[in-house]
UniProtKB/TrEMBL annotation:
EC number, UniProt record: 1.1.1.304
PANTHER family: 3-OXOACYL-[ACYL-CARRIER-PROTEIN] REDUCTASE, CHLOROPLASTIC, SHORT-CHAIN DEHYDROGENASES/REDUCTASES FAMILY MEMBER
Pfam families: adh_short (PF00106)
Protein name, UniProt field: diacetyl reductase [(S)-acetoin forming]
InterPro entries per record: 23BDH, NAD(P)-bd_dom_sf, Sc_DH/Rdtase_CS, SDR_fam
Reaction(s) catalysed (UniProt annotation): (S)-acetoin + NAD(+) = diacetyl + NADH + H(+)
Database matches in NCBIfam families: 23BDH, PRK08643.1
Organism the protein comes from: Methylopila musalis
Keywords, alphabetical: NAD, Oxidoreductase
Family: Belongs to the short-chain dehydrogenases/reductases (SDR) family.
């Protein structure tokens, strides 16, 4: 590998949005650390990138465990020699009507969705701080966090998930303030309704209850999208590609909404 090739870490890279992000960043020229809760899917993601001519390594990690996150990021850096971007994408999205929330659900979702962002930032900073900006304003590292359309407005039955995604926007903004002197930017992306295995499962239940097809079920959510369709993981990956690339070097503290027109700011 060329020493000039940049390196990105993507958590939750085993499927859905995370897999699309890992593949897109590899196409953009990054070597990619594919981190996932499942060792099997992490390795499969890395193999998919390698099959396309890219460079990647799969690493198993539970992002709610700080020490595991540090070890996983260190393993990627040991393999590729540097770190330029971390995408804190891993997350849980249970449906939680207010009266159904339990302490266990609350703790687990916050530990993964918010804790995973904290630990990913800390693990990346260890390596970002090893490089001093050559000039004021030069970017030496990028933090990219997964928020959501549900982190912009409250969504029915998503009190826990939505709260974590609002929190991630706050973490992102504070990190932008705190880390700018180090040459590190911090931004977030906010997907809307994305065609992932989890979303297809929800849509299939609605479709089955009405004697309809999966596509009919998905279209029920698309009715609330200005562009008339739910997004594909690749749509979100394109937004992350921009945040990871040089064209966004003068952007920090922002949460870009990529939802096809559900929330307007």
């Amino acid at each position: 590998m060329s020493v000039s090739r940049k390196v990105a870490v993507v958590t939750g890279a085993g499927q859905g949005i995370g897999l699309a992000i890992a593949i897109r960043l590899a196409k953009d020229g990054f070597a990619v650390g594919c981190l996932d809760y499942s060792a099997e899917t992490a390795t499969a993601a890395a193999d998919a990138i390698a099959a396309g001519g890219g460079e990647a390594i799969g690493v198993q990690v539970d992002v709610s465990e700080r020490e595991q996150v540090f070890r996983a990021v260190d393993e990627v850096v040991a393999r590729f020699g540097r770190l330029d971007v971390i995408v804190n994408n891993a997350g849980l999205g249970p449906v939680t009507p207010i009266e159904d929330i339990t302490p266990e659900i609350y703790r687990r979702v916050f530990d993964v969705n918010v804790g995973g962002v904290y630990w990913g930032i800390q693990a990346a900073l260890k390596h970002f701080k090893a490089r001093t900006p050559a000039s004021k304003g030069q970017v030496v590292g990028k933090i990219i966090n997964a928020s959501s359309q549900a982190g912009q407005v409250g969504n029915p039955s998503l009190a826990v998930y939505g709260a974590t995604k609002f929190a991630i926007r706050g973490v992102t903004q504070t990190a932008a303030r705190d880390l700018a002197p180090l040459g590190v930017t911090s931004n977030a992306y906010c997907p809307g309704i994305v065609r992932t295995p989890m979303m297809e499962g929800i849509a299939q239940k609605v479709a089955d209850a009405n004697g309809q097809s999966l596509e009919w079920g998905l279209q029920q959510w698309a009715k609330n999208v200005a562009l008339g369709r739910i997004s594909e993981p690749e749509d979100v990956a394109a937004c992350v590609s921009y945040l990871a690339g040089p064209d966004s070097d003068y952007m920090t503290g922002q949460a870009l909404i990529i939802d096809g027109g559900m929330v307007f700011n």
